[in-house]
Amino acid sequence: MRVTRRGFTIIEMLAVMVVIGVLATIAYARLQTSKDKATVASMISDLHAVAQEQEAYYFQNRTYSTVLATLNSNPSAGNIPVIVTGNSAGWSGSISNPKVSKQCYIFVGAAAPIGSATKDGVIDCS
After folding, report:
1. Among residues of the chain, what percentage have pLDDT more than 70?
2. Dihedral sign of CA atoms 18, 21, 26, 27 in order
């Protein structure tokens, strides 16, 4: 009489574990890229909101603010907006987040361009 055993060998189990590990690594890398894109999108949105608040401040005071606290700014968690310069001729600012290596920049009016911003009023990230 012959005894038959059912089940998987150790080699088969190891091969399956390696394949699952490779797939998990690829999935994690794609997830991290998506999270970084979402963070940069929130930075752009927050800097756009600061630009709108600056325009409202200018409408009332005929000068741009140099202090973020004077604006009704409420940035997303982790985003750090900074107003670099501000006067009656224009303003410039940036925003960063420690989770990503990119920073976003904007300048408006006669303010000196900062970072990678090259067009007046256009947010650019690098």
Report:
1. 99
2. positive
Give DSSP secondary structure letters for the chain: ------S--HHHHHHHHHHHHHHHHHHHHHHHHHHHHHHHHHHHHHHHHHHHHHHHHHHHHSS--S-GGGTT--PPTT-EEEEEEE-SSEEEEEEE-TTSS-EEEEEEETSPP-TT--STT--EE-
With CA atoms as reference, report the closest residue to 86 among 107, 114, 59, 69. Answer: 107
Q: Compute, in degrees rounded to 10, the torsion defined by CA atoms 31, 33, 36, 40.
A: -130
- Is residue 90 within 8 A of residue 102, CB to CB? The reply is no
Q: What's this model's pTM, rounded to 2 decimal places? A: 0.80
Residue position matching structure tokens 């603010």: 65
Dihedral sign computed on CA atoms, order 123, 119, 51, 91:
positive
